[in-house]
């Protein structure tokens, strides 16, 4: 059994709320607050019940302070959010909402040390996990802490599970999955599972380069992962669709090339126009589409055209479209399209892992 914040809400307690506040911060300012806004329903529900909230989060940059996140969250809530630099030394702040420093400042978080979890437990007498996006991983604040105090499932986390369960029970076919991004080693096992679940899997980015190389194509100096037996199986899979052409850079010059003409010094940085058209036709023939990861180096505008083209196809799609992943959502937000999608997940790896049938450690830790 899992306690849910949508049901029995703790009252007049100090509640540890694990959130995913891993947001882009530039010059001390939050550039995309999608993940911060996602936790607001849980915060407001807990505050209405008279609780004090102690927010816990990590940032992927182990040197990045969360002080600016506290300021930004305070502006969204309309009240100050106290910031605590060291959970082992800080006193008990009086503010209704408190944010502890980036948990990855301390090795005990990623190492899953019980001692560190006990340090965090000092700050509260109940726990809520509303960090769906990191619950496919283990960590002191995700898998150890909920065993030390009464634990609950957060509002957004429950909404995400409900959406994914509905998709798993009755996916309208054809089911199309789109994979991109640079997290090659972590996405490959999930891609292998989706090659069996989905009717067709469209692949771009470093993932595509890795499979292309396994199929015998040259990828030049492009980003690519390691070869292996699993990669060989993916390379043989008939429903894994790879780009036909690419935008490549070599010696400071960009060109559109078919995959058969990639040279040793070429670097693949985006899918080409023929690939965009092919991917678009396949997407439009699907009734359910799941997208995780950009298809090019979207940090540079000239290599974002392929991802933008696919986003526009999906935006007009009449079927069920689910978008997930920090890089994907950040891109959509940057180009002003994020609000055009009805179903946007706060998690990329967690979303795909759950859809592929994996257990989420953060969810399992909540079971009584």
CATH architecture heading of the largest domain: 3-Layer(aba) Sandwich
Order of neighbouring strands in the sheet with most strands? 5-6-4-1-7-8
The shape, in one word, is: elongated
Radius of gyration: 22 Å
Helical percent range? 25-40%
What is the CATH C level class of the largest domain, in words?
Alpha Beta
Full CATH superfamily name of the largest domain = Phosphoglycerate kinase, N-terminal domain
Overall domain count: 2
Helical run tally:
15
Indicate the mean pLDDT: 92
Report the structural category. alpha/beta
Overall strand count: 17
Q: Tell me the strand percentage band.
A: 15-25%
Termini Cα gap? 5 Å
Low-confidence runs? none
The main pleated sheet reads as: 6 strands, parallel
What name does CATH use for the topology of the largest domain?
Rossmann fold
Family: Belongs to the phosphoglycerate kinase family.
Subcellular location: Cytoplasm
Pfam families: PGK
Pathway: Carbohydrate degradation; glycolysis; pyruvate from D-glyceraldehyde 3-phosphate: step 2/5
Describe this structure in words.
With 368 residues, the chain is of the alpha/beta class. The chain has 2 domains: 14-159, Rossmann fold, CATH 3.40.50; 171-355, Rossmann fold (3-Layer(aba) Sandwich), CATH 3.40.50. It is 36% helix and 19% strand. It has 15 helices and 17 strands. A 6-stranded parallel sheet has the order 5-6-4-1-7-8. A 6-stranded parallel sheet has the order 11-10-9-15-16-17, with helices on both faces. It is elongated and about 65 Å long. Pathway: Carbohydrate degradation; glycolysis; pyruvate from D-glyceraldehyde 3-phosphate: step 2/5. Pfam families: PGK. ATP binds at residues 187, 299, 325-328. Belongs to the phosphoglycerate kinase family. Monomer.
């Amino acid at each position: 059994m899992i306690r849910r914040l949508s049901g029995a809400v703790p009252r007049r307690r100090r509640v540890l709320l694990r959130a995913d506040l891993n947001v882009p911060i530039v010059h001390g300012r939050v550039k995309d607050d999608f993940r911060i806004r996602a936790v607001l329903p849980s915060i407001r529900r807990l505050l209405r019940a008279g609780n004090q909230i102690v927010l816990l989060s990590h940032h992927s940059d182990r040197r990045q302070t969360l002080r600016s996140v506290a300021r930004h969250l305070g502006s969204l809530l309309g009240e100050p959010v106290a910031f605590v630099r060291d959970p082992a030394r800080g006193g008990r702040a009086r503010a209704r909402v408190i944010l502890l420093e980036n948990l990855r400042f301390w090795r005990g978080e990623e190492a899953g040390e019980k001692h560190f979890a006990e340090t965090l437990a000092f700050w509260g007498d109940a726990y809520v996990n509303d960090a769906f996006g990191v619950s496919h991983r283990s960590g002191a604040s995700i898998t150890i802490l909920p065993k030390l105090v009464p634990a609950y499932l957060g509002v957004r986390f429950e909404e995400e599970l409900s959406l994914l369960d509905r998709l798993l029970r009755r996916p309208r076919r054809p089911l199309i999955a789109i994979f991109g991004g640079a997290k090659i080693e972590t996405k490959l096992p999930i891609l292998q599972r989706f090659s069996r679940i989905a009717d067709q899997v469209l692949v771009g980015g470093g993932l595509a380069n890795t499979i292309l190389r396994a199929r015998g194509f040259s990828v030049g100096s492009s980003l690519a992962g390691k070869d292996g037996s699993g990669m060989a199986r993916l390379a043989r899979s008939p429903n894994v669709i790879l780009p036909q052409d690419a935008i490549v850079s070599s010696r400071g010059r960009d060109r559109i090339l078919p995959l058969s003409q990639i040279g040793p010094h070429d670097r693949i940085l985006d899918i080409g126009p023929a690939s965009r058209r092919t991917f678009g036709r396949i997407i439009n023939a699907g009734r359910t589409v799941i997208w995780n990861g950009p298809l090019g180096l979207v940090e540079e505008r000239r290599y974002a055209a392929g991802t933008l083209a696919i986003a526009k196809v999906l935006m007009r799609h009449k079927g069920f479209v689910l978008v997930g992943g920090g890089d994907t959502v950040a891109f959509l937000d940057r180009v002003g399209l994020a609000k055009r999608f009805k179903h946007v997940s706060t998690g990329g790896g967690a979303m795909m892992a759950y859809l592929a049938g994996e257990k989420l450690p953060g969810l399992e830790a909540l079971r009584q």
